[in-house]
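Posting for a labmate who doesn't have an account.
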Amino acid sequence: MGTYMDVHRNMVGITADELREAHAADLAIEKDEGVHFEKAWADPDSGTVYCLSHGPSADAVQRIHARTGHAADEIHEVSLMV
């Protein structure tokens, strides 16, 4: 299992409720791809959203995001954490 940080852009003005709804949509189907979404953060001013997840591949993470209507612009594997 890898750890992934993904980036979504162009979400200017996203609210806390919208972020919670998007995260909940991912959680509802994450098991279909063997992924687990840990946390999501957003900066409404820049429109940038970050998600931290664990899964078998970046492609698996992207498939879940795409199915819930918010495909990631970037997905980075994170191999070192402190």
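Reply:
Got it, the structure tokens are right above this. The radius of gyration is 12 Å.
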